[in-house]
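HUMAN: Mind making up another protein with tokenized structure?

ASSISTANT:
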Amino acid sequence: MPPNVNPATGQRLSNRITTTQADIDSSIRAASDAFLTWSVVSPVVRSRILLKAVKILRDRNDELAESETLDTGKPFSETSTVDVTTGADVLEYYANLVGADGLSGETTQLREDAWIYTRKEALGVCVGIGAWNYPLQIALWKSAPCLAAGNTMVYKPSELTPLHGRLLANIYAEAGLPQGVFNVVHGDGSVGAYLTSHPEVAKVSFTGQVSTGKKVAAAAGAGMKYTTMELGGKSPLLVLPDADLDNAVDGAMMANFFSTGQVCTNGTRVFVPYEMLDNFHDRLLEKMDHIRTGDPMDPSVNFGPLVSKEHHDKVVGYIEHGRTEDEAYLLYGGGKPSGLAPRFREGYWVQPTVFTHCTDEMMIVKEEIFGPVMAILPYTDVDEAVRRANATPLGLAAGVFTKDLNLAHKTIARLQAGITWINTWGESPAEMSVGGWKQSGLGVENGRRGLEAWVRTKSTLVDMSGKVATVFAPR
């Protein structure tokens, strides 16, 4: 297996390892043994352990952020303020939720002498399969509700960004998490496939591209396992005619260039009214100067490289296709950033890129690029924009910019997506349940509903009449 590489320099960072099937089996056995005790630990006690882990995460924020920057290439200005923080926020949220009666069931009086009650019980050994764009955050988004609910986890990081896995395992252990509750294995898709089909696994939570997610869901479904799938998107951002121009441009830039465009919820199809198009172009070009490339550890840098050479070549291929085959108008970018220091010139850099006067049939409009490539699509009226926005098999996210909040709510209600924003883009707090529609996913993560994905309900009817109602009685 090739080594792990620093995307900013293209230089070797660490060796990649693959966990053997025998060691995977050992990890699953350890998780299964640990489940017997962890699942019956009081939620309050589980909460205390997880809150200790939260404190360690926050205390080591910069150290963990630096590791994420080396592994992903994302700027330290981002990893130090978003990646570690939002992961810790979710762990803190679920620790507090289960510690404050969040796992209680319901009680219903059926009749005077009969009651129904429900219990929320942990599933068992769960598998988390992470992605390379937000490694530590995604690991925490999966493990936090899993462990808080009383499950155990075997977690596989992406082979492209493996460094966080062992760091998180050590933090959990330091916080007092019992051995076997959180386990880390490494490898490519073959390791994920083995985990997904393992008979001792009760649930699989996967984050990644749609094509892989379909395979994971099919394999898990064959074993009747619980699943959560957070997959890709080709999300629309609608700028309505009355929108504040500066806010709309800022939103479109955040929806396309944050994390170098490597965000599943990116709003890469930007719908702009014809009458606003020229002004939108002008303001966007002015603000593109605020994107700063360079040493990812420089606090002033806000735009890093793509994660790998393979992914860089894929994104560059889409840009070239947009130019030559789609014949879209290239408004900005399309090449490699200038002015990079010599040690970064072998990294996987690409300019933020904007195509305009795009049409729905173009490949750069239809397919998820997962890079910093914005497609601007002019439209005539809002009904047309909504219809075109929904004309996709994906449904992860959508957003609207307008001063008319009544119109905003009506428009959002018509958009076919599971995560939506009004006059903002991208924020995903712990309290907000998020999940895709259509082919963009199954289930949700975060929020109160996110905890429900990690428990099963047992319903019990208690009859206290002292007599069983039966049809098999004497006449």
